[in-house]
Amino acid sequence: MQAREQLFHFLLRQPFLQRDEATAFSLLWQTDRHLRRGDYLCTPGKTEHHLWFIAEGALRLYYPTETEEICVGFAYTDSVVTSVPSFVRQSPSSFSIQALRTCRVCGITRTDLLKAQETLPGVARLYAFWLEQSVTGIIEREIEISTCSPEQRYERLLARAPHIFQWVPLKYIASYLRIRPETLSRVRAK
User: What is the C-alpha to C-alpha distance for residues 112 and 55, in angstroms, rounded to an integer?
Assistant: First the structure.
């Protein structure tokens, strides 16, 4: 299935969009990219101008420091991803989005997304919903990191996204859970 066709079917499953709005909205996603494992969709210092739909693949979002790469999230087939602070503020990104496997993505520019929100009411509601989901996920993760044991964090991730262990190397999962890889191995062995 082509990326745009897959995007259209994805949009049909989203809340708030009527079929005609999904059709019009899908036509605005003009940028296609193919990423190999290790390629970057976004890097620190570059301003993100696109919201990306992942037609195939898996990516990690991480914040690079001098001593480590702090994994802050993952994105998979049939989801959208961007460097949210960079995309919203149109300022340089502080983190990276890197392909963990071969990816096919298509993107919509911020300009086209804003125009779509003005002319297609369902798109405005859908974009607000996506942002709400993102913020809610970030807050829930912060609470988990602050209050849950490594075992509880692992269990919650396993319940929320069991497929992650098939697609993502354990060192990145450990970073996301904010535990050492050795601790993750012990937790998984139990």
Answer: 20
